[in-house]
Task: inverse folding
């Protein structure tokens, strides 16, 4: 049988491999200091290749995970699947909001076609476990952030969204969410078509505890 394992990233370590101690990396610090979300409406083709998608998901999974529970999973939308899911969103929205303007229905019908790739991150909490539920949920949030950073490092724009459909019961049922699962977010990824503009950012609120 042919080896179908992804070949990117090339430096992913094998289990048990000794990892080097941290060393300064100015390129990483620059990327993090200038990371900026790209609006989904400002994305276009091309999106990540399948090899790059595999790499994104590998990198996403390298997140703090107390207890090695892997308390998250992914739902990937690409190609025609984006249109099919958007049509479902429109139908569900019409059931909830039967008197909305037509342009709102048009928006729902094209939601997932705004970007070439959408990755849904599902928080999959192991209930009644010694690892606190909150820690498991935070791990899923770290997965989302890893995807944002990795996508930008690959040269793509990315945006982490929830919007109404992340909390809708019908949408959750269609995606097969079970007890203990929630949608941490949908990450839209594509080629940036318009330059992002830096937004005002307040200084971090910091307290140095002195006892």
Result:
């Amino acid at each position: 049988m042919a080896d179908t394992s992804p070949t990117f990233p090339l430096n992913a370590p094998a289990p048990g491999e000794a990892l080097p101690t941290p060393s300064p990396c100015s390129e990483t610090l620059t990327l993090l200091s200038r990371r900026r979300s790209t609006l989904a409406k400002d994305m276009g083709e091309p999106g990540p290749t399948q090899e790059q998608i595999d790499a994104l998901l590998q990198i996403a999974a390298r997140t703090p995970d107390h207890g090695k529970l892997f308390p998250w999973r992914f739902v990937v939308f690409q190609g025609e699947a984006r249109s099919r899911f958007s049509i479902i969103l429109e139908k569900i929205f019409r059931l909830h909001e039967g008197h909305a303007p037509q342009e709102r229905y048009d928006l729902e019908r094209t939601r997932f076609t705004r970007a070439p790739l959408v990755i849904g991150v599902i928080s999959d909490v192991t209930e009644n476990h010694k690892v606190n539920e909150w820690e498991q949920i935070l791990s899923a949030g770290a997965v989302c952030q890893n995807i944002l950073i990795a996508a930008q490092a690959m040269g793509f724009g990315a945006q982490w969204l929830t919007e109404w459909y992340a909390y809708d019961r019908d949408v959750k049922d269609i995606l097969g969410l079970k007890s203990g699962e929630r949608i941490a977010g949908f990450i839209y990824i594509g080629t940036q078509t318009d330059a992002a503009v830096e937004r005002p950012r307040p200084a971090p609120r910091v307290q140095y505890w002195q006892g």
About this structure: The chain has a mean pLDDT of 93.
